[in-house]
Structure formats: structure tokens, C-alpha cells
Amino acid sequence: MKQSRLMSLVESVANVMVGYGVAVMTQILIFPIFGLHTTLAQNLKMGAIFTVVSIARSFALRRVFEAIRMRSAK
After folding, report:
1. What is the mean pLDDT of residues 32-52?
2. pLDDT at 55
3. Cα–Cα distance between 49 and 61 in angstroms, integer?
4. Half-sphere exposure of residue 42, counting CA atoms within 13 Å on the CB side?
């Protein structure tokens, strides 16, 4: 069964939302080890930027693989 574009986007967003929390926590824990000192607000903003990029990347890859799957099914 073919996955719709909307469901591809929903899946990507759900995946990245969980990743956002993991990313922010990782930044908070790891940045000080490398001498980077940021506020919580800065970490949240950086996480948001990476989240938008991740959603776009995940959605694009999902559509590419769906197109490959559909071509091979013909």
C-alpha cells in the first residue's frame, strides 16, 4: 500500500519531535565538554533550526524511497 504525502510528513514530524528533545538534552550535556556555554533559550533555538532541517531531510528521503518503491512495483 502506498503511503500518502501527508502521512509521510506526519511520520517525519513525529520522529523529529522526539529527536528535538534528545538533541536539546544532548547539547546541554555535551557543549560544556567542548567549552561551549549556551543558555537554555539558545539551545532551544538551535534545536529548532536543526529540527526544521531534519523534517525537510526526512520528508525528502521518504518521498525518494517511495518513488523508487513505486517504480519497482510496476
Report:
1. 93
2. 80
3. 19
4. 7
Classify residue 30 by burial, with Cβ atoms within 10 Å: 0-12, 13-18, 19+: exposed
Instruction: Dump the DSSP string for the chain.
Output: -PPPHHHHHHHHHHHHHHHHHHHHHHHHHHGGGGT----HHHHHHHHHHHHHHHHHHHHHHHHHHHHHHHHHH-
Calpha distance 71→74 (Å, rounded) = 6
Q: How far apart are CA 74 and CA 65, in angstroms?
A: 15
**What is this structure's pTM?**
0.66
